[in-house]
Amino acid sequence: MELRQLKYFLRLAETLNFSTAAKDLFITQSTLSHQIQQLENELNQPLFQRNSHEVTLTEAGQTLLPLAQETLRSADNCMLRMEELSSVMGGELKIGVTFSFASIMAETVTAFLRQYPHVKMNVTQSTMAELIEQLTNHELDFVLAFKPTKPNPKVESRVLFHHRLAAIVNERHALASRNTITLEELQRYDLALTRQGTQARSAFDRTVAQFDYHYKIKVEMNTVYLLFRLVRESNYVTVLSESTVVYEDGLKAIPIIETDTPENEMQGCIHLLKNAYVKNSTKEFIRMLGESTAMLRSAINEP
Predict the structure, then answer these.
(1) What is the pLDDT of residues 53-87, one digit of tens each?
(2) Which of 238, 103, 243 is nearest to 175 (CA)?
(3) 156, 264 contact by CB (below 8 A)
(4) Is residue 88's pLDDT more than 60?
(5) What is d(CA 41, CA 49) in angstroms, rounded to the nearest whole number?
(6) pTM for the full model?
(7) pLDDT per residue over 146-192, tens digit each?
(8) What is the rounded distance in angstroms from the CA atom of residue 295 to the CA atom of residue 195?
């Protein structure tokens, strides 16, 4: 059994189409068929059921699938370890980040690339759920996001800082001089919020559910850049974590009193796969992030 054959098997198991799998693997269909046949002969049982209409996995194929995935991941980790022993910091660093963390990590991205120009950085910004799924599928090296309400048994979450929910306004807003605000007071203002499903919005919705308050939610969007622009140029109020505006000029975060409780505390975390190999570039980025000005400012603002 060869790693190449397992790679071919996995691609065919994903596509269930010999023509598509061969094209994705940059080999001929006859080569793919021959390699799969050799693997089946070595295992002494069919892995795929073939007919004129479709290709499906047999029971043996379904059993081999997770084993093949783990074998190839282990082989990849082996190569990464050997490469890092014999070369300077290099390779590709794949980071997932939620909307709230984009400004916090910007400083570290710039500093890291300046210090390690041979590392290719790939940054994906999406929702917490989508990023954790990509992490568990080994598509990301780590994720920067708040700690989820329901922990994933495959993921280790390392807390970087603790933050409260806050009303975010521009520096000219009537609320800008306030040090705190209540949920009841927020009813007076037009709100522009992130869409339901984001962590800050979920924390806000969970908190207000216990009160009979009625809010004037005028805008919902999933792009923080546009949300910040709207808040800067209008009297709209948004609700996010304090950390979101650490590096945002012209905006002020006013902590919301009722959300300053352990159950609503938002913990900024580094999320890594448990028992997985951690690249040197990942370790160095996390170290630099912890020492960044943005992270120090976040720590100062902790309740």
Answers:
(1) 889 999 999 999 999 888 888 777 777 666 655 55
(2) 238
(3) no
(4) no
(5) 14
(6) 0.56
(7) 888 788 899 999 888 777 789 999 999 999 999 999 999 999 999 99
(8) 26
Distance CA 180, CA 166 (A): 8
Q: How confident is the model at residue 260 (pLDDT cuts 50, 70, 90)?
A: low
Distance between CA 242 and CA 255 in Å, rounded? 7
% of the chain exceeding 70 in pLDDT: 89
Q: How many CB atoms lie within 10 A of CB 265?
A: 17
What's the angle, vertex CA 277, arms to CA 142 and CA 267, rounded to 5? 35
CB 94 within 8 A of CB 124: yes
Tokens of 72: 């190839």
